[in-house]
């Protein structure tokens, strides 16, 4: 499967964090490809260009996915099953961008998705005919960029970087001490703009950082990864890892994971 990563255009830089394109063009008519989605702190918009629908496996059950949908914070592992001669274009949004889409509440989209075809007065049949007629991925991304600009209601994005989130949750940090009196305000901000609590958001970023180290590490001891990513100990790391992947780190490494969606994006 061909994977393309690209930065958003200047038109979308305040809305979109990164774009990934997955194209199953291996030439085998019966070969599907699996794309795993782990928690990474980013909501997103998912477009599929395919004659046959992409399926989503979640908690052991498969569901047919709509051609265009928006999803919120992803806490539990999910797998997209991409049919042959299909393309998936993923726009990863900044953590707070969902709150600036029309008629969308981030908290209601945690581990959920919203079919855009049924939510917005837009002729999707024309959009997808146009996408199929485009002769390049670049042209398709530009078409979707134009569409997204119309979809967002004048966003005022309060992008929260990983470093800022960590400082907010660090009891030794002056920033954290300065907001102690406004704890409820911070909690409310996260729930309203991101969809989850500050604690859960921190856990997502911590897990994702550990996942990246695990994938890149050459037999590095788990205790070292746990220490580097600020888990209390190895047992704590394993418990949290299993929460987000449904497996232990060692079991994960024994499995095959050729395609995983964006990892550790908030550096």
Automatic annotation (TrEMBL):
Coiled coil: none
Keywords linked to the UniProt accession: DNA-binding, Transcription, Transcription regulation
A molecular function (GO) term: DNA-binding transcription factor activity
Gene3D superfamilies: Homeodomain-like
One of the Pfam families matching this protein, by short name: HTH_18
Every HTH araC/xylS-type domain range: 182-255
The keyword Magnesium appears for this protein: no
PROSITE patterns: HTH_ARAC_FAMILY_2
PANTHER family assigned to the protein according to its UniProt record, in alphabetical order: HTH-TYPE TRANSCRIPTIONAL ACTIVATOR RHAS (PTHR46796:SF13), HTH-TYPE TRANSCRIPTIONAL ACTIVATOR RHAS-RELATED (PTHR46796)
Protein name: Helix-turn-helix domain-containing protein
Source organism of this protein record: Belliella pelovolcani
